Each structure stands twice: as C-alpha cells, then as structure tokens.
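#onboarding

Welcome to the new folks! Below is a worked example of what a typical request in this channel looks like: someone posts a single protein sequence, and someone else replies with the predicted structure as tokens. Don't worry about understanding the tokens yet, we'll cover that in week two.

Example request:
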Amino acid sequence: MPYVARFTPETLTRAQVDATAGPLVLEFGTDWCGWCRGAQPHIRTAFDEAGGAVPHLKIEDGPGRRLGRGFGVKLWPTLVFLRHGVEMARLVRPDSAAAVAAALRRIG
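Example response:
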C-alpha cells in the first residue's frame, strides 16, 4: 500500500518541501474535483506497482493557497515529483498509470 498523507497548505510549507531528503511526490487538487477523481485509478496503480517506496502527499489546493501557487499549479490534479527538494518531473491531469510510473522512476 503506498504511503499517502493529506495536508493543507497551512500544515506544510515550501521550506519543508525544499528541505526534504530523497524522493517525494506532491499531488495538488481537491476531493470534489472531477479531474482529480478521474486520475486516481492511474495514480493508485502506479504507486501500487512502485511498492510504496515513494512518499505521496495529497495537498488540498485552491485560490490563494501559497504552496500550490509556489509550484505554479494552475490545473488539478498536478503531481510534482521531487528528489531532495528539486523538481524532477511534473504531470498535469495524468491520463495513464504508465505516465505516473515513468515519472516515479525518474525520482527513484
């Protein structure tokens, strides 16, 4: 089972993200977003196949939310793939597990 934690922008800062060691995936979106719900099977499949080796944080996003704006998020879901706090890949509205898996491989 993949590691998934839910955060609001008030509980996670850009400085904390930038200081993270190792791989990390931030998923920006909302529970009520149809695009976000539609992408979940692809995201879940890719993370299941990766064996839960990469932390996956779901970030509640919206207007005025600094963390999402700091990453230039404009559409949901947006997945930001980081290694040691540096963005290595980004997927906006992923439509396949293969695309998510390829980005996961890039960050280890």
